[in-house]
Amino acid sequence: MDRWIEEHIDVVLDHYATLRRTEHADPRPPELIKKLMEPTVRQLVSSLRGESQWGGFIEELVTRVLAAKQATAASVSEAARVMYQAVQLAWRDAPEVPHEQWKLAVCEQMLLASEHVAFSLDMHLGARIRERNDALAAQERLQQEVIDAQQAAIRELSTPIIPLLDRIIVMPIVGSVDTRRARDILRALLAGIREHRAQVVILDVTGVAVIDTSVANHLTKAIGAARLKGARPIVTGLSDAAAETIVEMGIDWSGIETLSDLQTGLGLALSLVGFELRRREGVAEARDARLS
């Protein structure tokens, strides 16, 4: 059988080119179609002789066309099927050919080809899925890094340290205070005391809408940590409602300097480090004269 196909390869290729052009609307010239298909027909002959691996050839072919994006696995499988039809047409007018016996042998090769097409396609799709998953994972990691950076920037902005004159720092606290933010406040406060060698720390809570047990405990820890670092804490901006809440909860702030507003707290802080605020009467009188 292999010798017969080899001897009649031109007939097989003619049938193949005709089938491609008539049944599959292949626009390429017949000679080009035959030239491209001849290696595959010769590979079939070699495989029928047991000299090579037909499945390996098809597998390599599918891998190559998929990688080059020149065709699809289905097109390779279709080409093998059309080649099988072409071989059958070449046998049709050959009385010496044992049709059924040879047909079975070639069918086995075509089945093997289909199996290897499916295997190659599965491997290719598996690789593409892994690539896609890796790309998605990388994108998710990048997005998470951006989110983490944004959150870090927001946390830094939400716990600012403002140095005033020498040895005085102010930390305005605005918004709600949860466990994570309380940790950031504590770390920023200690870092500010160390960096500016602060002796007085003003914690202004005017912007904290609600002071409950949790917030009060977090502030108490921050105050205690500031004392351990050698700084004197002053809490400013406590509302009447916040003061009542702290008393009702039984939290002892008797040893903590608390003032109604930031302005009063700044005056106390300056006096604690040896500065004194005095009104310049002459300037004040001149200003009053301009206004009158």
Structural class: alpha/beta
**Domain module count:** 2
The averaged pLDDT comes out at 76
User: SSE order in H/E notation?
Assistant: HHHHHHEEHEHEHEHH
Percent range for helical residues?
Answer: 55-70%
For the sheet with most strands, the description reads:
5 strands, mixed
Q: What is the helix tally?
A: 11
Based on CA atoms alone, the radius of gyration comes out at: 43 Å
| Sheet with the most strands: spatial strand order | 1-2-3-4-5
Shape type: rod-shaped
Strand content: 5-15%
Distance between the termini: 122 Å
Number of strands: 5
Low-pLDDT segments, ≥5 res: 286-292
Protein name: RsbR, positive regulator of sigma-B
Keywords: Phosphoprotein
Verbal overview:
The chain has 292 residues and is α/β, with parallel strands linked by helices. 68% of the residues lie in helices and 9% in strands. A 5-stranded mixed sheet has the order 1-2-3-4-5, sandwiched between helices. Helix 8 links the parallel strand 3 and strand 4. Residues 158-273 form the STAS domain. This is RsbR, positive regulator of sigma-B. It holds the Pfam family STAS. Keywords: Phosphoprotein.
Per-chain topology:
Elements lengths: L1 H6 L1 H15 L6 H19 L5 H15 L4 H20 L6 H60 L3 E3 L3 E7 L4 H18 L3 E8 L5 H16 L3 E5 L3 H9 L8 E3 L2 H11 L8 H11 L1
Parallel strand pairs: 2-3, 3-4, 4-5
Antiparallel strand pairs: 1-2
Helix pairs in contact: 2-3, 2-5, 4-6, 5-6, 7-8
Brief overview, please?
By secondary structure, this protein is an alpha/beta fold. It has helices at residues 2-7, 9-23, 30-48, 54-68, 73-92, 99-158, 179-196, 213-228, 240-248, 262-272, 281-291, and strands at 162-164, 168-174, 200-207, 232-236, 257-259.
